[in-house]
Fold these 2 entries.
Entry 1:
Amino acid sequence: MQQLEHFYESTPKAVGFIERKTDIPSHTINLYGPPGAGKTWLVLDYINRLPKKRRLYVDMSDLRLDVESLSGNLQEFIESNDIESVVLDHYTPKLPLPKCRQVITVTQTPFKQNPFTPLLEISSLDFEEYLAFERRHQSLEHSFSQYLRCGSLPSMAHVSDSLLTMELHKNIRSIFPSEKEVALFRYMARFQGKPLTPYQLYGIMKKDYKISKDWLYKSVNEMEKRGVVTWLHKFNQPKAAKKLLFYDFAMPASLYFEKSLMGQLQSIAAKKLQKRAQTLYYTDKIDFLDYEERRAILLSPFANQQSGATKVARIAQELESYNIKEVLILTIANSFAFTFEKRAVKAIPFYEWVLQD
């Protein structure tokens, strides 16, 4: 009981907590999301607002914790102290879920072993949330430039420029504990925002490392389960290479001296679009195809009206075949609009677009 008494009496504080777009409800849930997204801080803010004698926060990653002893004493402790809300952070199924009015499990992957537990996902910071965290705000354009450099993890918003790369690499090593996993992530980083198959990745990596195809496929699948990477399908070609996207776009960009602006923008745009577009794809000429809305999204950072018109004209055949009604061009700083063959074409700076509902 000693370890439970410790957790009961000394719940950590979410010092300096900044409100997120995700709110924790007052019922049992599984809060899940990728590493470093801010799950612990969110749940600590919630639990600390409850009556002290009716709550219990247990961090299962605490190295002092004996899970076997915890399993034998947790339910009794909850009942003897009339505890109403229990948070099991870094939860592992080694611990049977206790019976309580509210149980919050915090995991990286969705905990689906109990089908009656609702799931609540928290993702890394979008640009609007980042603005609340950032302290160096000068202008939207400058803040977006910093967002590209810092990435989407809350812990990175206050890091000084001189330490950014070092801290990003620390994050990578904390997410991937083995050197082989770090190497795999580094190979994948080259393809941020580009089509790739695990088989192609295996063919590239096996030249330098003794790896099995099974290990690589399993590792890539685990990254997807943890929300570290996502994949975008090619329209009408389910077997084609999928576009590789990262939940934090700055970590892969930090692994090479050459900058990959387009890759970073691809990951940021996909994160926003996938929240609403149920039918989002890419094609050979269209960065993002929202087929249900018949909308094409093109990334063209330095486009002006003339180059934008040229770009749209080059994909006229695809626009016609997909019955596209609207074309959106995302630029770094330019805005313009025109009509092309009865289709509305609009260009808007990326940093303005990501703030739109």
Entry 2:
Amino acid sequence: MKEFCFEGKLLHTKENQASMASLSALEEAMKSGRVLESICYLCDSEQNLHVQLGTFEGVIPKSEGAIGAESGKVKDIAFISKVGKPVQFVITDLLRTGQSVQAVLSRKAVQQQCRESYLRYLQPGDVVQVKVTHLERFGAFVDIGAGLNSLIPIDMLSVSRIAHPAQRVREGQELCCVLRKKEDGKITLSLREMLGTWEENAAAFSAGQTVKGIVRSVESYGVFIELAPNLAGLAEYNETVLTGQAVSVYIKSIIPEKMKIKLSIIDVIEQNESTPLHYFFAGSHMDAWHYSPACCEKVIETVFNK
């Protein structure tokens, strides 16, 4: 299986820069079919994408800009939105006019290679590196390779519930995810299995501590407060706090057999930048993930080989 990466990963590599250093380097890259990457600086009136290859110019015709572009399945915004962003491509031709040289490029060809040589071989449970491209209320779209998008549904971003993906991830953020399912050619990813079990997260806390949390839900029977993306506790009802606020909380007790953490709200505090995600799994594949402790009757798990 040949691996492909999300757009932006190759941009500053020595190999990528060396392949654009001279005409002979471009000719070698074309001959070998090497995947290159550059920033799109222009989308012209016909939606052709223009990039700079060192001192040379390259053009990705609209029909080669993405899979489905030639049939009109890709909307114009998909090309317009590439300006100022990295795009991957292969060189298909070098056109010479006098002393000038223009490279003809294909992004579609890289995407086809990515599908055929990489994505088709991925299986549920495989861990992949992706980059967040845009957010919707129902989830985060990510570049899984060569600009091809996959979805992380909002309920797969963490165990702790959130109202919008922006509360967990941001556009441009690089993530490690696990492939949850492949269905009808679509790949759905999940982040929560990478963020640890209940016990792994709870191990960072102990009764008697006062720590920071984020209010995720205010209910009549109590306030759910996130201590970590995969760990939340319950405090007594407090009418003065609002969803999304940062609070300091006193940990009254931690009860593994019930997967409960009892909290007491101390004060509303200033919201600082979000803490970077911490990954508890470092492998390349997981067969199953068991979130709940063995001593707990309630079972929360993901089995990927079903």
